[in-house]
Amino acid sequence: MKLPEARAGAARRLAAAGIEGAARDADRILAAVLVVEPGRLRLLDRALTAEELAGLDQGLAARAARQPVAQIVGFRDFYAHRFRVTRDTLDPRPETEVLVQAALDLPWNSVLDMGTGTGAILISLLAARRGAVGLGTDISGAALDVARDNAQIIGVTAGFVLADWYEGVTGRFDLIVSNPPYIALSEMAELAPDVREWEPHGALTDGADGLSAYHAIAAGARDHLNPGGHVLVEIGPAQGSAVSILFAGAGAETRVISDLDGRDRVVLARFPA
């Protein structure tokens, strides 16, 4: 089967399975099988080998079962780098790049990333600010293994430790960042099956009202920040006010930052010296 025919057939198969963005996802899967970038597919015109066809079939079957493309191909591009992704980590979202950019607009030389997952936030920050130091924590040892691999592949030196929020974290930092589990338990059923059935629930929801992590982060921030330090946390689009109140109650000056779609996405909290 020639590549153009395989490409068109893959898109039709995913569309028939009800996958939104079928052509885009089919291209990402096919490109990963061929070890090329998706944009080069239209430039190629050759027959696929039996092994490549089997790999494509396996990838399409997984996507039809609603497995996220990043898990199927094994990576996600985020900010300026490519990150390995597994079922033990959240798939880094483009919206989280808002937090990275906001952090790079601040003065800091040391950063703590809690709930680091793939390490996408921490590694992106340290890669962009050479000479800075950073620590990533997570409650999942498997996620930390992925983060360590990503740091090594991208060429960033960072520390990674198993920790439940501030538990076991010593020292102080100029900046604390986190994309914590902020989906309320009552909202989990509304998530797309791609997320609900495939990504780690502990990284999605706190099993309560979606605010538990912010209580913990705000309560311990001052004890883990250098004077005048900042906290940046990703939030759900309806959580700006509630999260801001939590940090204000802990003594911070707060501001809500919107994403490119105009939705509340990040709370910035500054703790005065």
Automatic annotation (TrEMBL):
Molecular function GO labels: peptide chain release factor N(5)-glutamine methyltransferase activity
Residue sites binding S-adenosyl-L-methionine per the record: G115, T116, G117, T118, G119, D138, W165, N179
Annotated ranges, domain Methyltransferase small: 96-184
EC number of this enzyme: 2.1.1.297
Entry superkingdom: Bacteria
Annotated residues for binding of substrate: N179, P180, P181, Y182
Keywords: Methyltransferase, S-adenosyl-L-methionine, Transferase
Keyword S-adenosyl-L-methionine on entry: yes
Record keyword Zinc present: no
Swiss-Prot/TrEMBL catalytic activity: L-glutaminyl-[peptide chain release factor] + S-adenosyl-L-methionine = N(5)-methyl-L-glutaminyl-[peptide chain release factor] + S-adenosyl-L-homocysteine + H(+)
GO-annotated biological processes: methylation
Annotated CDD domains: AdoMet_MTases
Every Release factor glutamine methyltransferase N-terminal domain range: 5-74
Assigned protein family: Belongs to the protein N5-glutamine methyltransferase family. PrmC subfamily.
PANTHER family: HEMK METHYLTRANSFERASE (PTHR18895), MTRF1L RELEASE FACTOR GLUTAMINE METHYLTRANSFERASE (PTHR18895:SF74)
Function: Methylates the class 1 translation termination release factors RF1/PrfA and RF2/PrfB on the glutamine residue of the universally conserved GGQ motif.
NCBIfam families in the record: hemK_fam, RF_mod_PrmC
Full protein name: Release factor glutamine methyltransferase
